[in-house]
Amino acid sequence: xxxxxxxxxxxxxxxxxxxxxxxxxxxxxxxxxxxxxxxxxxxxxxxxxxxxxxxxxxxxxxxxxxxxxxxxxxxxxxxxxxxxxxxxxxxxxxxxxxxxxxxxxxxxxxxxxxxxxxxxxxxxxxxxxxxxxxxxxxxxxxxxxxxxxxxxxxxxxxxxxxxxxxxxxxxxxxxxxxxxxxxxxxxxxxxxxxxxxxxxxxxxxxxxxxxxxxxxxxxxxxxxxxxxxxxxxxxxxxxxxxxxxxxxxxxxxxxxxxxxxxxxxxxxxxxxxxxxxxxxxxxxxxxxxxxxxxxxxxxxxxxxxxxxxxxxxxxx
Length: 316
Hints:
five-stranded antiparallel β-sheet
């Protein structure tokens, strides 16, 4: 029996330059393995600043972008891919850049009718000197993913996180500070224009940080999430609305907080290139609706083929 991607030349971009490099390598390896099982001729590329030249030489039909974080997920690599005129997976230049800038994305989402947290951007030194809002609150880089550089400042804390003022801080001069929303951590993956499911994430560490996301046994995932049907449905629709409002394509994942006491559901951020690791949420939700990991990877690639070659940055 012929394989669906038999003979197709597909390059998988992985690794990259961001603090999320190690997770990207795991995502890229898993997706490359799936593409090979589907019959593709796969070139695994550890993406550096010469990625344009490497791709021009490799001449793939499609690029599977498995990069995470700055440079690979924020519109930069997408711009390179459009310059060399090659099809690529996931969102385009504008949507990638917009979603990666959390504060600007929140403004667009709020205007579209998506509930988002309050808060705003603050200079990191100011945020290290004094509480810029009453605790509890969350401090996060404005343009990172995977919970890199995120701090939870608890109620009653004497001082804000001093890490913000250290020379070792490499996540930008401005940080996003939002009120902490108690309750449940939820996630919704969207394929195309259709939300898949709602997952509750139960961190073993008490906070859904980098270790809880990617460490062995760092969190438990419950799908479907044990929440009221009307909240479940609202999360699905809000994720679809957010995906459309930012101009996303392909697969995304929206992260929410839900406070059962006040029936308060807010969207924290949209990830335009969700993780595809053994502990990742999008593949779990795909499996919940009957799609295997290979099915999901195939859909992502076929969606990119269907778009054709991108020329210029006018497409989101």
